[in-house]
Design a protein that fits this description.
Layout: H1 2-20, H2 27-33, E1 34-36, E2 43-53, E3 56-65, E4 71-80, E5 94-98, E6 103-108, E7 117-124
Parallel strand pairs: 1-7
Antiparallel strand pairs: 2-3, 3-6, 4-5, 4-7
Length: 127
Amino acid sequence: MYSKRRITVAALSLIVLSTLSVAAPASGLISSKVELTTSNDNVQVTDLRAVQSDRLLRVQAELTNFSPYNQQVYYRFKWLDKNGFTVWDDEPWKPMIVYGSQRQIINVSPPSLFATDFRLVLHSSQR
């Protein structure tokens, strides 16, 4: 009886952790979620995490500036449904300064509950 309860608790814990876990994807997975409109070796997406909880997708992107100079970056997200169709109009470009040799974090949630996937579109000027 005691071992059955322990197994049940362990199984439920795994289910809860699997729905809440956030895994850092490999660089190949990052590149599949990022669209670059310009080439800039100084600012790169170095980490990208996504989790869906309570039917809402949450995305966190980390941008790293590898140069000693401040870099102006513009970004927006494309929100997609489970079939890859756009579920929201294009967002406006959002400006961001990534300071020299620093990292910036973008935290965002989609404007629609139908969004289950995304693309981060990044535009930057190289200095």
